[in-house]
Amino acid sequence: MSFANPKAVRMLALAFLAQNLALGLSYGTYGAFVLHFVEEFDAPLSLAGSGLAITALVMGWLHDLSGNYHLAFVLLVALYIAAAAVFARFLLRARHPAQQQG
After folding, report:
1. Which of 60, 64, 41 is nearest to 52 (CA)?
2. Are the C-beta atoms of residues 48 and 41 closer than 8 Å to each other?
3. What is the SS3 assignment for 85?
4. Which of 7, 27, 25 is nearest to 15 (CA)?
5. Segment 37-49, tens digit of pLDDT
6. CA-based Rg of the chain, rounded to a whole angstrom?
7. Average pLDDT value over all residues in the chain
């Protein structure tokens, strides 16, 4: 990629800002809720904060599997499967509502 092209530089800058905005929102939001988890479940701060780290680690491990899946299947088929799973969950939830806790 040549940095002499102003459109390339602009696209690189926008991608950098978008990536940092998305990561900042997800990590920042999780960080704001960690203290509530610690108070609610009486858990150590290190245990409550490890959830996002484990999630990021697993996402890194699964990126090849996810990429190969999207190469093998058409994205529309994956969306239909996801929609069917959501519909099945709502159907099961309607048949067996959660018990009210008093």
Report:
1. 60
2. yes
3. helix
4. 7
5. 888 888 888 888 8
6. 21
7. 82
